Amino acid sequence: MHVGRNNLQADYHLNGTPLQKTTEEKDLGILVSCDLKPSQHVAKVAAKANSRLGIIKRNFIRDREILVPLYLSLVRPVMDYGVQSWSPYLVKDIQALEKVQRRATKLVPELSHLPYEERCQRLGLQTLSDRRKRGDMIQTTTQVDTVVLTTQAHRNDPFTCNLEETLSPRITLGYEAEKKLLKSSITPDQEKNLHDMLDSVKGNTKYLTRTASPDQPIASSADYVMADKDAEQQDIFIEEL
């Protein structure tokens, strides 16, 4: 697979046998295309999730006590698998996934006339975009805490610190990566700034989402801005983390 617009599309051989060219490959269930956009994988995931939702619709009564557990166990995990590596950033891809949950929440007869956000609230669900934002924050916090933890241990006792005790059990790293972490030069002031930044994001700010065209990326500084809680009075749609 050749990646990049200016790729020379060279031919490669293995033991004299030319290697077949491809425009997409699957790795651990994630479809990777040559343009590195997640659109093809999103389309596949949305189709699979819709298929499972159709099976539920045809075979079970439309009761919220039955539909919600089935959705959470059979449908949503399809759209959550490995999402940190292919999280959609185009509006059309975000909407393709959100349509699945919109359809699922409409299956409950007594809620079908309500707006999507209210249906999610009554069923105890997050919108999928909010769920991905929350997952990104958890992943960021985990990575920052791990770097700070290993750096602090190395600064206190750089010769006897135990990697197994200092590294977060939630992250598995190779030996070379562990050494690089221990050699990190984060100062106490930088460490404090990292924690202050995360506390500020989690406690004092909200995400503001700007409307973008279907083919336009929205994960840019112009599309996502951070605002204090006082921004509730502004005439824009605000979603809490």
**Adjacency order of strands in the biggest sheet:** 6-5-7
How many helices in DSSP terms?
Answer: 9
Number of separate domains: 2
Which structural class fits the helix and strand makeup? mainly alpha
Indicate the radius of gyration in whole angstroms.
22 Å
Q: What coarse outline follows from CA principal-axis ratios?
A: flat
The percent of residues in helical segments reads 40-55%
Tell me about the largest β-sheet.
Answer: 3 strands, antiparallel
Mean pLDDT: 73
Uncertain residue segments: 158-172, 204-214, 217-241
Distance between the termini: 38 Å
Protein name: RNA-directed DNA polymerase from mobile element jockey
Organism: Petrolisthes manimaculis
Describe the structure in your own words:
With 241 residues, the chain is mainly alpha-helical. The chain is built from 9 helices and 7 strands, in the order ββββαααααααααβββ. The protein folds into 2 domains: 24-125, no CATH class; 132-239, no CATH class. 51% of the residues lie in helices and 10% in strands. The strands form 3 sheets. Strands 6-5-7 form a 3-stranded antiparallel beta sheet. Strands 1-2 form a two-stranded antiparallel ribbon. The protein starts with 12 loop residues before the first strand and ends with a strand. The model is unreliable at 158-172, 204-214 and 217-241 (pLDDT under 50). This is RNA-directed DNA polymerase from mobile element jockey.
